[in-house]
Structure formats: C-alpha cells, structure tokens
Design a protein that fits this description.
alpha+beta; 87 residues; 4 strands; 2 helices; four-stranded antiparallel β-sheet
Length: 87
C-alpha cells in the first residue's frame, strides 16, 4: 500500500499500514557507501519515523520510492538512486 491512501503518521497501526510503511514495509535493506537503503514504496510520511529512529541522520526518498538514510552532515543529501523531485 503506497501513495495517498496511506493513513497519517498519527493514525493507529493497521495491517495494511504495517505492510506499506517504513520500516516493516521494507522489501530489503542494503548498506551502500555508508547509506542504509530500504527498498519499498515509501513517501514523505515515512521520513519522520526514520528521523526519530536515526537521530542526526538524513533520510530521503529516492527515485525508486525507496528510503535512504544518509550519515549526518550539512544540508539535504543527494539520493544515491536519484532524486524523485529532480528526475
């Protein structure tokens, strides 16, 4: 389940949300050049839980809809798999 049909982050967890939201909705996880890459179909609503889980890290959604958690640093990181807003 992805896209606008997902409940807001404040909604109770449901089975549908469990299989579509980060982290339980991740199809696989890889470490690429020090960046955790969670494959799946995520959106902006998944960024806040990732920020709380990895304080100081910089999560972004990549062009494939995956979630990347970059090391701490200045500014917004450039997604390894392309930026969905600039592709």
């Amino acid at each position: 389940m992805s896209g606008p049909d997902l409940p807001p982050a404040t909604a109770p967890m449901t089975v549908e949300a469990l299989v579509g939201r980060w982290p339980t909705g991740a199809e696989k996880v890889e470490l690429v050049h020090g960046v955790m890459v969670f494959a799946g179909h995520f959106d902006e609503r998944d960024l806040d839980p990732a920020r709380r889980t990895y304080p100081g890290r910089r999560p972004v959604i990549n062009a494939d809809g995956g979630l990347e958690v970059h090391p701490a640093g200045p500014g917004r990181p450039v997604p390894l798999l392309g930026d969905p807003h600039h592709c």
